[in-house]
Amino acid sequence: MINQLSIATLALALSAPVFAEKEFEDHNRMMDHGDGHLMDATGGMVMGQNTDVLPGGCSRIAATKEITVHAGHKYAEKFPGRMFAFDVQEYQFEPCTKLTVNFVNDDEVRHQWMMHGLPKYLYPKGMFHLEVTGPGKVTGTLIFPPGDKTYLVHCDIAQHMEKGMKGQLKIGKGDAELPSIPGVSAYVIQDDYSDSKSESITETVVAEITEMKKKVVGNNSFFSGLTVIGLAIGLILAPLLTRKFKNMSPAEVITYLFDAVRNVIDIFAKVISWIIGLVKNRF
Question: pTM of the entire structure?
Answer without folding.
Answer: 0.61
